[in-house]
Amino acid sequence: MQPIRVILADDHAVVRKGIREFLEEEGDILVLAEASDGEAAKVLIQAHRPDVAVLDIRMPGATGIEVARWTRAQGWPVRILIVTAYDDTQFVTAALQAGANGYVMKDADADQIVAAIRTVHHGQTAL
């Protein structure tokens, strides 16, 4: 079985490191690369064409919502999971309208984030 290929984008290095560490413990998830801003996330998505892009909402350069919208405009089958601290219906709605496949809070436990990655990878919505 092929691993789920993931890129991470968050402007906080400690958050990226934490998510990467627990994802690397999973046998079916491979973290390809990390970005600290939205523009770098676009470059990584274009270069790697991951199965899932895990994006923060608020990042310099481009927000996770803008990256999701851009990815959808390219027509690539990349699944988008927003992992954020913003628990606001306005952000959830905007993310889903931009083409995100899931929206998870940063205070979720590791198992919930892993499950959300697997869920969006399989074509379902994770909220």
How would you state the average pLDDT, rounded? 97
E-strand count: 5
Largest sheet composition = 5 strands, parallel
Global shape:
globular
Explain what this protein looks like in three dimensions.
The protein has 127 residues and is an alpha/beta fold. The protein is built from 5 helices and 5 strands; from the N terminus they run E-H-E-H-E-H-E-H-E-H. Strands 2-1-3-4-5 form a 5-stranded parallel beta sheet, with helices on both faces. Helix 4 (89-97) links the parallel strand 4 and strand 5 (102-105). The radius of gyration is 13 Å and the shape is globular. The relative contact order is 0.17.
In brief, what are we looking at here?
The chain is of the alpha/beta class and 127 residues long.
Protein traits:
globular; 127 residues; alpha/beta; 43% helix
SSE blueprint and pairings:
Elements: E1 4-9, H1 13-24, E2 29-35, H2 38-48, E3 52-55, H3 64-74, E4 79-84, H4 89-97, E5 102-105, H5 110-121
Parallel strand pairs: 1-2, 1-3, 3-4, 4-5
Helix pairs in contact: 2-3
